[in-house]
């Protein structure tokens, strides 16, 4: 029984808005989604007669993503969004999934995310930093796709190897897919929004002796701010970001069940 629980993975439905997602980041995106569960459905929505979606076509077979065709019947109306929303509700009513991943920077999916959560399922959102706050707040967790991009060193080497001159639009997209650099302690402390968020999360879960476990602390951060992710500040691990802020005392103690593993506890410096 314990072995079954250990290897249980949430069943996820991944729905991608092709008009508002970057094809170059799909591999990194699916790897990120794999942290939260198994993608039992992977669908992408768009008008595949449109040449602007050409970059996606090479990715579909490689990553087993099912393209869903939606013609644009009238100008100014986004039929793609409607098709994605209808499919999402159909999948929701099957009761076969534990959560949904909505890949888009479009606020039109705000009500969809809220409705799915009302049914008790988890919603993970993926989009660019331009995504409206309403959609971000409607998700349990929202990941900015910029932090999934290639490191600047790799991006610069790729551009150096290519003799083809890129147009300004492609350069903007490339720069947005580069991972942010790690901010130093002074810059982190000057970020009032970050400092306030850390303090609020700490106060909510700190024990009477002032110490807080880093695991519940991270969960509380996401509850308060779905878009929080230490990678937004250039750090792969939450513990590394906490140490960099120099706002907390940090101690490591052996795990109760596995002495080789360490539990990180933090305490706000007075």
Automatic annotation (TrEMBL):
Residues 190-270 form the HTH OST-type domain. InterPro entries: LOTUS-like, NYN, OST-HTH/LOTUS_dom. One of its GO terms (molecular function) is RNA nuclease activity. Signal peptide: none annotated. Residues 154-185 are annotated as: Disordered. Residues 163-172 have a biased composition (Basic and acidic residues). Gene3D superfamilies: 5'-nuclease (3.40.50.1010), LOTUS domain-like (3.30.420.610). Pfam families: NYN, OST-HTH. It comes from the Bacteria. PANTHER family: HTH OST-TYPE DOMAIN-CONTAINING PROTEIN, SLR1870 PROTEIN. This is Maebl. It comes from Stenomitos frigidus ULC18.
